[in-house]
Amino acid sequence: MPVSSTTCEFGARAPDFLLADTSGRLFRYADIAGPRGSLVMFICNHCPYVQSIVDRIQRDAAALQKIGIGVVAISSNDVETYPQDGPEKMRILAEHHGFTFPYLYDPTQEVARAYDAQCTPDFFGYNARSELQYRGRLDSSGKKPAEPDVRRELFEAMALIAQTGQGPREQVPSMGCSIKWRSE
């Protein structure tokens, strides 16, 4: 059953993190922050919603990086239950799709909880002051192939944030698979 992200809490500060990428290199929020804003994405390998948009995620991330937006993806799923979401498979996915941004693993799931991530994909767009300005979807396609003229909602919102420091007030929440939380 698909899960939706929550609405944007405008101005909420970006939680810091210290997470490793698939080669073991550590990153903090400050390491990925761009001069004009930052995009933090919660994704994973197995989710059909992510699988259907991963090429567009890379396309938009590369375009956003060119205008000063820092980009990072984080996988927080329980890898004991979903081993395909673990670091080695993450490395393969990132290489296959030519990710131009770090793909980090959140083994304790503390970062996903700090961000209040709900689903994969879940997008958090911050301005240059690390204030939340976007908590919407990539586009309207969901897990279907996108129409050629589909509006690039995430890209447009982040470009607006880069220009003005403010996100659009009308946002449609992202939808996808739930974060796969570890049982306590």
Shape: globular
Overall radius of gyration: 15 Å
| Average pLDDT metric | 95
Q: How large is the count of helical segments?
A: 5
Low-confidence stretches: none
| Helix content range | 25-40%
CATH class: Alpha Beta
- Strand arrangement within the widest β-sheet reads 3-2-6-5-4-8-9
Summarize the structure in short:
Helix content is about 30%, strand content about 20%.
Write up what this structure looks like:
The protein has a seven-stranded mixed β-sheet with strand order 3-2-6-5-4-8-9. It has a three-stranded antiparallel β-sheet with strand order 1-10-7. The protein has one domain (3-178): Glutaredoxin (3-Layer(aba) Sandwich). Helix 2 runs parallel beside helix 5. The protein has 184 residues and is of the alpha+beta class. The chain has five helices and ten strands, in the order E-E-E-H-E-H-E-H-E-H-E-E-E-H-E. It has helices spanning 29-32, 48-66, 87-97, 110-115, 153-164; strands at residues 3-4, 18-21, 26-28, 37-42, 69-75, 103-105, 119-120, 122-126, 132-134, 175-178. Helix 2 links the parallel strand 4 and strand 5 (69-75).
